[in-house]
Amino acid sequence: MLLRLQQVALSFAGNTVLHDVDFGVEPGRIQSLIGPNGAGKTSMFNVITGFYRPQRGDITFDGERLVRQEPHRVTQMGIARTFQNVRLFREMSVLENVMAGQHCRSRAGALSAILRLPSQRAEEQRILETSLACLDFVGLLEHRDRLATNLAYGHQRRVEIARALATEPRLLLLDEPAAGLNSGEKQSLIGLIRRIRDERGVSVLLIEHDMSLVMNVSERISVLDHGRLIAEGAPQAVQNYPRVIEAYLGQDDEELTW
């Protein structure tokens, strides 16, 4: 198991957000985490990546404990993420935004930078080449010198994915990557997610409300409702679970379209 959560519980001011969650992601898998609004999905991402600390339970990544690790250390260990709302550096170019993802892999110190030692110059070249390759991978190389916030929204989503890939992850967490995309962009996103796994060997865990996309791209689906994991399995099986159907009653029709 690449990622494992065991009996993870999280609460705020007496309100329980996650109830003793047992969850895992196998290496090389594309997996989706779904559930109604407020089910605890993003909180679970925040627990995994060190933004929240659970009150109890254990989290391991490739056998190493994640609990109480700082977010930057979790990134160094090989977990990258995107967010529900695009978070780009507004005054930086597309390339500079992606290069920021390489910060966790840099080694040269302040002295090397001041003296412009060969090791510093070599590292700068490696960061540049890695970042350009990530932009090329998501299809945005020609936009590298533009301000990231001047791009179309769908392209901004891809910049964020490129920045996450620049951290050289083994597991990529995508938080509602299809939000705000049109149908053509969603189809392109499905292809990109598959390529991330197939060509880069990165496992993918995504939160998504577009059930058509989830069914199309996922090999396994986990369903969270009111902080409890209520179903897991292959897409065709999960969509017919009575508890899953019940959890989605009252949701918008778009969310109920499998």
How are the elements arranged and paired?
Layout: E1 3-12, E2 15-25, E3 30-34, H1 41-48, E4 56-61, E5 64-65, H2 71-77, E6 79-81, H3 94-100, H4 110-115, H5 118-138, H6 153-166, E7 171-175, H7 183-200, E8 203-207, H8 211-217, E9 220-225, E10 228-233, H9 235-238, H10 242-248, H11 253-256
Parallel strand pairs: 3-8, 3-9, 6-7, 7-8
Antiparallel strand pairs: 1-2, 1-4, 4-5, 9-10
Helix pairs in contact: 3-6, 5-6
Defining traits:
11 helices; 6-stranded mixed sheet; 258 residues; 40% helix; 2 domains; single chain; disordered C terminus; Rossmann fold; alpha/beta; 4-stranded antiparallel sheet
Estimate the helix proportion, in percent. 25-40%
Question: Would you tell me the structural class of the helices and strands?
Answer: alpha/beta
Measured distance between first and last alpha carbons: 28 Å
What is the succession of H and E elements? EEEHEEHEHHHHEHEHEEHHH
CATH architecture of the largest domain: 3-Layer(aba) Sandwich
Largest sheet: 6 strands, mixed
**CATH class call of the largest domain:** Alpha Beta
Compact summary:
This protein is of the alpha/beta class. The chain has eleven helices and ten strands.
Explain this structure.
Mean pLDDT is 91; it is low at 252-256. It contains eleven helices and ten strands. It has helices at 41-48, 71-77, 94-100, 110-115, 118-138, 153-166, 183-200, 211-217, 235-238, 242-248, 253-256; strands at 3-12, 15-25, 30-34, 56-61, 64-65, 79-81, 171-175, 203-207, 220-225, 228-233. It has two domains: 1-78 and 171-258, Rossmann fold (3-Layer(aba) Sandwich); 88-168, no CATH class. Helix 7 (183-200) links the parallel strand 7 (171-175) and strand 8 (203-207). The strands form two sheets. Strands 6-7-8-3-9-10 form a six-stranded mixed β-sheet, with helices on both faces. The chain has a four-stranded antiparallel β-sheet with strand order 2-1-4-5, covered by helices on one side. Helix content is 40%, strand content 23%.
